[in-house]
Amino acid sequence: MLYNTSRDAFSDKTGRSDRKIQEILLFGRYLILSELGRGSGSKVYLARHQTLGEYRAVKQISKKSDFAWKVREARILNRLNHPKVPKLYDMEEDEDSYYMIEEYIEGESLEALLLRSSCITPDFIYQTIKETASILNDMHHLKPNPLIYQDLKAEHIIIGFKGVRLIDFGISVFLGEPGNKFQNYGTPQYCAPEKSDKANIDIRTDIYSIGKLLEDLICAEESGVSRSLLHIAKKASNFDPKQRYETMEAFQDTLAEHMQSKNHSYYQKHLLKKIVAAGSQPHIGTTHLSLSFTQYLNQQNIRAVYRETNSSDDLRKIIREGGFTKEGGLYRRGSFFGMPAYGEGVAVKVPQNAVEVFDFGTDWKRALLEEADIFLFLTGSRAWEREYASQVYHQVKYAKGLALITNYGDMKQAKRYASLYQQCVYCFPLDKNPFLMTREKERLFQRLLKEKGVQNQKHRNCRKYPWKRSHSLICSIGKLCSKRAW
């Protein structure tokens, strides 16, 4: 039963939807907050459990639709019990609808990421396809009957801090079980031809879909480096099922062998573990830069945690403005994860293999003591800030992985620094929101990772400027953004 409340709903903070609805109390337990999406005969809402305070995804399935087929998803989720698949918590019904109460998967859909992001990397493509294939492979090995997902597409792949996760099992089926429907389901772009031909369906149907998905990602990657993966995508999505990979494992093995090949050394990435950031003086944007870099890494499917290692308490100030959820000792906003300065007496577990981005503020001396892969040294670009920059630069210039960055998008001053210090200088733009990834920031961070040996990849959109007789470069990022907030 539904109960209306008097308050207006707030929009979903993760960016998955911006639909606002009147708040509804469902079955006395679940407060409906916003609509996440809708399909044929069903809607999905974001809800909060009133007692536990946990978020849930509620799928409402109309009894006027083919509900008997659609509620099969509940049985599938109940049998799966997979960490990369939503958990089913409860089933309810009223006169008009069934309601599936599921785990809410936080993150951003691959579809939304591709629409928003101007630059995806070969490593992002590999990691996304690798993790997706692993989930499908687990389904294909379920006993006593393999599960065929049947509806693989970018919209159903959620990318978050825990990696790739799959949602929407409404048309998934177990092979060999009576009453299953296989034909004429799924998105035509990713749908295997044998489905429309009413031929036999098996696990190669999913292999076709992941091949098509890989093709799309290759086309979206601007540098062209990932085109060497195209032969794998073509084999997986062959019109004839007999010409495809026989198993998802075979597809995975071929993909892994290709990525590890000596002939494709541009995929061999330096293992990034620690980044430190420090500024030549206060109030020049060191925290803004650190937050932005952390956001970028997570959006590229590289787990990263921002760590406030200074006394400013800026992260807590930002958290108090809203939009964050607490997970353990970390605070999350969309794909961003951050840790305030808790002090030495508090130990917070950072997820395994996560890149840690340490914001030292102006304490460049402490930053030098860290064995970091990249040292982000931010300088002011105004005339009265140059003396501070010069004094500190001569103290940090031999730091491992040093990246010299000037703020406010001032390319004129960046050229001066490049000439003076005889090294590459990066230009960080005027920027309002560290949690919003602009094309300018994407290009800067891609370029920076490449130059520091983290990712050996071509970048067409980052211009280089030789300065006088030196080999110094100014890494420009083009059009500037609006004024920075922090």
Strand order of the largest sheet: 15-16-17-14-18-13-19-20-21-23-22
How many strands, what sense, and barrel or not for the largest sheet?
Answer: 11 strands, mixed
Distance between the termini: 46 Å
Helix content: 25-40%
Mean pLDDT: 82
- By CATH, the superfamily of the largest domain comes out as P-loop containing nucleotide triphosphate hydrolases
CATH class of the largest domain: Alpha Beta
Please mark out the parts with pLDDT under 50 across 5 or more consecutive residues, or reply none. Answer: 1-18, 455-486
Number of strands: 23
Outline: globular
Task: Specify the structural class.
Answer: alpha/beta
Q: Predict the CATH topology of the largest domain.
A: Rossmann fold
**Strand percent estimate:** 15-25%
> What integer value in Å does the Rg equal?
25 Å
Q: Which architecture name of the largest domain does CATH use?
A: 3-Layer(aba) Sandwich
Number of helices: 14
Number of domains: 3
